[in-house]
């Protein structure tokens, strides 16, 4: 019987194994990827998903096992060799040059040249426009990448891969910084690539995306391949199966993802009165009580992150007052915010949440260094003691408190960021997309940490683009649109339909 195009293997991995510092991260992985299909890799942070595709992409070259492309043994020695083999990868971390234009980034290292050896600017712009049009992007090829939003920068990364005519495309959390409409544009592009018989490996932690785009799915757990299956069946049933395979927990033993909500709160702790910032947000007023989690919903560009940064003193505001416990306070810098007990867990943890060149211990102590100073010197003993306390409390998976934070999985990096603010004993905590790029287990743990902070009296402002977690965590939800709060949804009113209708009603006005 002849195979259909979707059944033709393009790449086969056989008995792949990989270690870091003597610790196995992949064990005897054998898997086949086919033409014209989206094959999702699913697993908890640290399961080995990114390591596997980095081997395929030539980033990791020291591994056991073999790779076969179109039946022939290959071993990419670097990413350039992988590109020549027709393999392209979009990383979770951006690798663009902010000072260069969109077109120059798309064709970085491959700029078209004329016979005299000079860059053919006309062809560069024309080809870039064609790629951008395929992604339905309206940005100019001439625009500097550093002036683009994170979401648009992510789309430029995808444009780079498409420009290389890769027949196998590796997507590592490509939607982590995209709005819902941009995700749909990306999925439309992926469907076109499937029709062109491209093979696509897709890593995501979002179950909605799995069901929207995947043909087959492989679950990895602790570096081992647990199962490969077709994504074809009832969503609710398959979701439970996926979580069970990821966690190694029987379906009947799976706990609820969201902790129970509080039904009573203390006095108003944080008050924002008439905050404004030209071109970003206007006349914002809100209150958060002690022990309350208030969600902040809105589409990309609504001004949510800009408002959070202004409250924290990271960005200036044009007008408005900030009150803490009924008393007006001045916050013109993050340092002032921290002194008042206000913390911000940023959406871009790698850029703003931690210091990548430091270890877990140093990052946990960043906001409370003064507490570990003795006789003018930082006490390593006190730093280590505090770090171990929070590593144990938050179940941070790390070889030791001295390990570089960059070597941890995304979920464990986020726990270290949370530990930093727990150590600071913040009274007001702003969470900006705190679960972006982490697995379902880490999400559940982060939700419970947030709830525990609220139970201890903190006032929490929670920004999220994921409707389920806004619904599952928020005691109230504020909907923001074009720099204004357009709706307040009370307990029981927070639904996807009401959030979206609040936005669209205001678009029509």
TrEMBL record:
Its main location: membrane. It comes from Halalkalibacter oceani. This is Sugar ABC transporter ATP-binding protein. Signal peptide: none annotated. Keywords: ATP-binding, Cell membrane, Membrane, Nucleotide-binding, Repeat, Sugar transport, Translocase, Transport. It holds the Pfam family ABC_tran. PANTHER family: CARBOHYDRATE TRANSPORT ATP-BINDING PROTEIN MG119-RELATED (PTHR43790), D-ALLOSE IMPORT ATP-BINDING PROTEIN ALSA-RELATED (PTHR43790:SF3). GO terms for molecular function: ATP binding; ATP hydrolysis activity. It is found in: Cell membrane. CDD domains: ABC_Carb_Monos_I (cd03216), ABC_Carb_Monos_II (cd03215). GO terms for cellular component: plasma membrane. It is a peripheral membrane protein. The keyword Transport applies. The keyword Repressor does not apply.
